[in-house]
Amino acid sequence: MLGSVRWNLALAGSGMLLTFWSSLGNNGFAVSGLRSMYAFIAFFVLGYLIRFILRAIVGTTPADGPGLPADPGVGGQVDLSTPEAGEDLNDLLKAQLEGKGHPPAEAAGFEPFQPKKIVSTQNMDPEALANAIRHLSDNKE
Prior knowledge:
Largest sheet: none
Number of strands: 0
Number of helices: 4
Strand content: under 5%
Order of helices and strands: HHHH
Helix content: 40-55%
Distance between the termini: 66 Å
Structural class: mainly alpha
Radius of gyration: 35 Å
């Protein structure tokens, strides 16, 4: 199973408190306590089901332990050095400053987006607007 019984206890305890406080307004103390005990048992069993499903999804076995890699040598050393790429970076920056860094936009086949112009209806003839609306309403029928 993934995790420990503490997860089940935490889930069951929170479910028990939630059930007790929500049931206390409509029922007496004894009935609310009984229902919260039933909720504790149900949430405790639900915790095992959730842990089983998570174990099936993650795919770890209890022998692997939580978060342990399959190969014990993996992750044992940390490489804190970075590769030297100073010359390549300097050459790239020099070429970019001289204008040779990127091909021109025309060579790449780029053309800017040119949307249709939106016609304003503020300065149009009212009769033309009325005809356009009549034409649109005729098409809907």
